[in-house]
Design goal:
This protein is mainly α. It is built from 5 helices and no strands.
Length: 81
């Protein structure tokens, strides 16, 4: 039986050379495991993982991962109630 990570990566239709590396990355990420299990996790760790996955899918030249000013993050990503 395939793991959830293997099924996810398989659905991405990546070249086989990238598939196993990405599966290993997802399965070895403690923040992802904690998030999926409902435990405490670091948001920054999930964001970093999401960027890594995006780079694997789209190519590193298409995904900008340079650090962003925290004020910019707050203005664009958080909803103030």
């Amino acid at each position: 039986m395939k793991s959830a990570s293997a099924e996810f990566v398989g659905d991405l239709a990546l070249p086989s050379s990238q598939t196993q590396l990405l599966i290993s990355t997802l399965e070895g990420d403690y923040n992802l495991a904690a998030f999926l299990d409902g435990h405490d996790y670091l948001e920054s760790g999930l964001i970093s993982l999401a960027c890594h996955v995006a780079q694997a899918i789209l190519g590193s030249e298409s995904v900008d991962t340079e650090p962003v000013d925290q004020t910019e993050v707050m203005l664009n990503w958080y909803v103030v109630a």
